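Supplementary notes for students who missed Thursday's class. We covered one full example, reproduced here. Read the sequence, then the structure, then the short commentary at the end.
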Amino acid sequence: MKLDATLSAVVTGGASGLGLATVKALRAAGVKVAIFDFNEDTGRKAAEETGAVFCQCDVTSDASVDAAFAAARAANGQERVLVSCAGGGNAVATARRDKNTGEIKIFPSDQFESVLRLNTVGTFRCITRAAAGMMTLAPVDGERGVLINTASAAASEGQMGQAAYSAAKAGIVGMTLTIARDLSREGIRCNTIQPGIFNTPAMARAPAQMLEALGAMVPFPPRLGRGEEYASMALEIIRNTYLNGETIRLDGAIRMQPR
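Structure (token representation):
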């Protein structure tokens, strides 16, 4: 698929981190972009800086997602690209013993479910809306659209305390090929990027010594990933029509340790 001003894209979680890097790369190629983000202040700021359109969106809500897609299409036309970067997690052990009291505590089920709702269900909710919209378009060079999801190295090697996050991201990996097959007759591709440790705003809040140690864990290059590298992969997926149903690790060959 050609990247130019005739193309419209939606990026969820597009106000910061990997999403914002992708917005910038798409805008640099001339693509019309709508930023979906929960945070209105950072969303509007990112839109002003990049020339994108901001649509406030809570990916855990049908009504919010439907309204955001309607606003994006009113501004930019029907999207042919969806990049899903919205997500997050928590760090809670499956079951643990309190060091002081010896009390045994378990991972609250509602907290586990909330991580799946945000990451797995939120991604799928946006996919269904985007795919339905893409199906109304005439194919260009044989394809109607491209869906790009964001998983994590935790989907394969979740660290201690990442049970919910690992499950949520593994769910995204698991549904990638099935969605690609579901939409193959419509000329819509679906792929997932599985990042390792990236220098996102959330990660940047960690102490410098910790960031240096994390970077040293990566075989090569021995550093944290950069948002531009994720964005470069996303753009290549859009361009490469034969790339479909695939999960691509982007991690410098790291395999996460237990902690």
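Commentary. The first helix runs from residue 17 to 28. The domain at 8-212+230-250 is CATH 3.40.50.720 (Rossmann fold). If anything here is unclear, bring it to office hours.
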